[in-house]
Amino acid sequence: MKYLVRDKIFAIGDDYWIEDEDGRQAFLVDGKALRLRDNLELKDPAGRVLVTLRAKALSLRGAMTVERDGRTVATVSRKRLSLLRDHYRVTLEDGPALDVSGRILDREFGIERDGETLARISRKWLRVRDTYAVEVVREDGADAALLIAVAVCVIRMADRD
């Protein structure tokens, strides 16, 4: 399943629908304006909050948390920087860590667990400017909201740096 995300959602205070590959509204990104830290909520079409993304206030290397029902389920942090590829680590509260690597600023990267690709993020598939796709590769048991949240966090952190 592919989800289409527009880059303009990264402005604080902007609300934006993420659509599935059939053009149906799948998730609403609700940017929380007038906050000291980056805060975003990813909601389902009925308006229920699925996950909340927050920038960590006191982090040397930059980090964001993904929260569900008031508890942190993942922490996204920069792993290492190289000229060719960026690397991020997603520490999950219950489960093995995820690795994110690729050309983040070009919106060409992958999310993996133990060498298995869970999602691919790419602009190649699209003709629409400032839009990228999050393709959930492994659909059995995959948490699309979490994978999209990880992609949003990584891009937001890379754009800030």
Descriptive report:
- A hairpin with a 2-residue loop joins strand 6 and strand 7 (about 70-80).
- It contains one helix and twelve strands, in the order E-E-E-E-E-E-E-E-E-E-E-E-H.
- It has about 160 residues and is mainly beta.
- It has a twelve-stranded antiparallel β-barrel.
- It has one helix at about 145-160; strands spanning about 1-5, 15-20, 25-30, 40-45, 50-55, 65-70, 70-80, 85-90, 100-105, 110-115, 115-120, 130-135.
- The N and C termini lie far apart (about 30 Å).
SSE topology:
Elements: E1 2-6, E2 15-20, E3 25-31, E4 39-43, E5 49-55, E6 63-68, E7 71-81, E8 86-92, E9 98-103, E10 108-113, E11 116-122, E12 131-136, H1 144-160
Antiparallel strand pairs: 1-2, 1-12, 2-3, 3-4, 4-5, 5-6, 6-7, 7-8, 8-9, 9-10, 10-11, 11-12
